[in-house]
Amino acid sequence: MHAQDPVDFIEVIHNAVPADACAAIVSRLRASNRLQPGAVGSGVFPELKRSKDLRISGLDDWQDVEGVLQQAVFSGLLSYLRRYPQALIAPLMLQIQDSNGQPRRLTAEDFPQMDQAALSDLARTCLRPGAINLQWYEAGEGGYPYWHCELFPRDPQAETLHRHLLWTLYLNDGFEQGETEFLFQGRKIAPRTGSLLIAPTAFTHTHRGNRPQGGDKFIATSWILFQSAQKLFGG
């Protein structure tokens, strides 16, 4: 990142999943008999989101795909935390041991020297993966044109309020438009096969999914959530 570049906290990691693996996922999704109308937080509203979806988490015959995607997302998350360590240290007052074995606050300056294993452990301690949804948007009519964010007080367990980062893995390209468009950042992310998009979930990153033209669009989506308060803080 150059000094003059604006900081928008949107990260795109290319080739996160190989193109042949993406094509195999698309083929399996096309053949699935378990597709459901795409839903938003409050239900199925085709005027807001029109897609055919399959939640693969918890399905035995999709465990292999979920594993591939979660592994790619975790690798992308580590890259994201290297670039934006405040994603962890701003909401959580984390501590580490100094050279004398005494606790001290973790700072952003600690991250460049942190090895991959330590960063992985820290990420797993603080964060957890969400359930994965595969989505199929048909050319010219599918899309999620409603401006929305991913953080909202929907459920009694406050799961939706634990969402910290969103991610989208683009499973294909070869069509026009179909971008993920961020309102306040003025940025459109063009789908590229195997690319992983990571961004914050709050209203600051209000976004929409534009309709693909000239071809269908396939994506995998989910969130990276905070661990529960009980796991983070005990009690």
UniProtKB/TrEMBL annotation:
Check the record and name the Gene3D superfamilies matching this protein.
Answer: q2cbj1_9rhob like domain
Q: Which Pfam families match?
A: 2OG-FeII_Oxy_3 (PF13640)
Residue span(s) of domain Prolyl 4-hydroxylase alpha subunit Fe(2+) 2OG dioxygenase? 137-224
Q: What name appears for this protein in its UniProt entry?
A: 2OG-Fe(II) oxygenase
Instruction: Give the source species.
Output: Stenotrophomonas tumulicola
Tell me which InterPro entries the record gives. Pro_4_hyd_alph_FE2OG_OXY
Give the classification, highest ranks.
Bacteria, Pseudomonadati, Pseudomonadota, Gammaproteobacteria, Lysobacterales
